[in-house]
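Fold this sequence, please.
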Amino acid sequence: MSARKVLIILSDAHSFPVNKPDGTTTQEDTGFFLTELAKPLQKLLDAGYDVTFASPKGGRPSVDPLSESLLVYFGNWKQKQRESALVQQMESSNNLAAPHPFSSIADGELASFAGVFVPGGHAPLQDLGTDPDLGRILFHFHNNHKPTAVICHGPLALLSTQFAPGSPGFAYKGYKLTSWSDAEERLVEKLKGGEIPKVESTLKDAGAEMVSTVGKKAGGITVDREVVSGANPMAADGLGKQFVEMLQA
């Protein structure tokens, strides 16, 4: 592909809902998962791609606080610092601090992008799955067979194609996809003491063929046509590598 630009989709949400057994709902802090953004992003930059950030309303995105824990990095403080520094660089030298609102990205502008990437964190649960403009954007990449990378909770964004203007339905029906699993979410539910919306079963109900990586090699990814998807932070490195290979094909 001649285009050397990639669109990165982020959420405006800073919290996600946890439905408690007593009928109340609490809001838990969230944002994008640091390593799920940083690892693929670094591979894109290293390969010479420019990136542009976009979100529903153009709000300043936040980092999921859990993703900044050293436990996520298995104690690798230097790796965490490198990834945090990359995000800060994108805030100061790119538009990460002020993403383009989806509605501001015209169909003609979409032609300048070689691919699209949606990182995870629980934030996409709030505002990506039903956004009509995001559905319009994703249909561009789908209809033009442009590489599309999604990881963890990011695959929920694909459901927005059902809400695009004039949509014929879920664009990825029948696709093999991998996401944050219901089993993994149930572990989070135990920690939070309530029920959380599920990505895996929601995509399955919409018609996707979900490929679970539970019990398989950590960091596995799934490729089907123009889409590469991964289950969790351990897939970020492999997903980024595969995404770049697809962009360069």
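The chain has a mean pLDDT of 94. The two ends are 7 Å apart (CA to CA).
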